[in-house]
Every structure is written in structure tokens, then in C-alpha cells.
Amino acid sequence: MTNPVPSQPEAPPRPEVSGPGRAAAAPPVQRLRSDRPWEETIGCARAVAAGDRVLVSGTMPAAGGQLAGEFDPYEQARAAFTDALAALAPFGLGPDSVIRTRMYLVHARDTEAVGRAHREIFGEVRPASTMLVVSGFAETGVLVEVEIEAYRGEDRTGPDPHPGPGPAATTG
């Protein structure tokens, strides 16, 4: 006697699409821009909010245009995470909203130092994390670069469209 195959749940309905590839009910994609030269050079945004997620572009340890924590992977990681978290602020988010981090290192020997910086900032949050060793970065002296992804839940408020000096938000 064979067991009956359990019925599969019905697939959720697909959203209606209006316009080129956009769902009718989907909120607009919001892009946060800053004065960082890489944004213009490679054509990217500082952060992008789409639906319930906010993704922050790769962040190097720079403070005021200067490399922070030269030769110190711990200080570079702290500076990079602090800077990446600042990109969440216009969306009303902070460390507790972070659900994923990525850490890129030049040297495997720096995993403990970078991990310590991560733990100090996100220890209670415990986001999903990945740490990778790469061959290098575009900027000399950079040992660490980070990316973060945050969840904004049902509150889909975006950045102030008129923030004054600093990063500027655009939609579309």
C-alpha cells in the first residue's frame, strides 16, 4: 500500500505588475546619496531601501576623507561599521535593525580583531554574518570593508527628502 502524496500548499498570488517590472503595491525604491566620490565614479548609492530592507553599500574605514585606524584592523572595522550604521539613520534605523553583515578582510590573521569589533557593536543583535578574505581593496591601506543590511518592518518611512547638509535621498 502506498502513502498518499501530501498536498502542496497553493502558491501565493503574484503581485500585479504595472510599468516596467514594478509591482503595483510595492513602495518606491529609495536611494540615499552622499558626497562620497565612489558613488559618482562607479554609479552607486550609499544605501538603498526596497520594501522592508535597507542595504548599505560597502563601507571603508574613512573619517572625513581620511583612512581611520591605519594598520589597525580592529579600529578600521569599528570605524567602517560606525560609518555604515550612520547610513541607516536617515531611515530611522540603528544597530538593532541590522539583520546581516559582511566583513571583507585583506588578511586572515585579522579575523579575531575584526570579529571583536563586530561583537562589540552587534553582540546582542546577532545578525547573520559572513567574513571573507579578499586580495585587496581599491584604496591603499584599507584592511577592512563592511556591508550591512537592515530590516525596517512595516514602517516604510524613508529619509527626509530635505535633510540639509549631508546625504541626499532620491526615489525611483
What does this molecule look like?
By secondary structure, the chain is an alpha+beta fold. It has a single domain (30-153), classed as 60s Ribosomal Protein L30, Chain: A, CATH 3.30.1330. The chain has 3 helices and 9 strands. The protein has helices spanning 37-42, 73-86, 111-122; strands spanning 30-33, 47-50, 53-59, 62-63, 66-67, 98-105, 128-133, 144-151, 168-171. It has a 7-stranded mixed sheet, with helices on one face. α3 links the parallel β6 (98-105) and β7. α2 packs parallel to α3. The protein is globular and about 45 Å long. The protein starts with 29 loop residues before the first strand and ends with a strand. Mean pLDDT is 81; it is low at 1-19.
Summarize the SSE layout with pairings.
Elements: E1 30-33, H1 37-42, E2 47-50, E3 53-59, E4 62-63, E5 66-67, H2 73-86, E6 98-105, H3 111-122, E7 128-133, E8 144-151, E9 168-171
Parallel strand pairs: 6-7
Antiparallel strand pairs: 1-2, 1-9, 2-3, 3-8, 4-5, 6-8
